[in-house]
Amino acid sequence: MTRKLYHGSIVEVSFDGAVCQHAGECVRGMPAVFDTEHKPWIDPMRADTPDLAAHLREVVGRCPSGALRIEEREATNE
Ligand code: SF4
User: Fold this and answer.
1) Given pLDDT bands bounded at 50, 70 and 90, which one contains residue 77?
2) Does residue 77 lie in a domain region?
């Protein structure tokens, strides 16, 4: 399985389902972003303030398998 990218306004998250250990740290840590009832199940757009983005970085950092990764958005002139 390949790594998929999920877009956000501050940070983006990528996920590789082949290495996920289903530990649930993500869903427990930030259910607004990681919601298995929704499609796509990862929505980094919901972490749209600096505080929420910081929390998202922290939750992704707890992923024990490395399935989740933060992909920082590159600065643009938009
Ligand atoms: S925290 Fe990582 S390993 Fe655990 S369910 Fe989420 S993506 Fe999978």
Assistant:
1) low
2) no
* CATH number assigned to the domain comprising residue 63: 3.30.70.20
Rounded mean pLDDT of 41-58?
Answer: 97
Q: 66 is in which domain, residue-wise?
A: 4-72
- Assess whether the C-beta atom of 25 lies below 6 angstroms from ligand 1: yes
- Given a cut of 90, whether residue 32 has pLDDT beyond it is yes
Among 45-49, 51-55, 64-68, 71-75, which is the least confidently predicted range? 71-75
4 lines ligand 1 (CB under 6 A): no
33 lines ligand 1 (CB under 6 A): no
DSSP result, the chain: ---EEE--SSEEEEE-TTT-----HHHHH-TTTB-TTSSSSB-GGG--SHHHHHHHHHHHHT-SSS-EEEEEPPP---
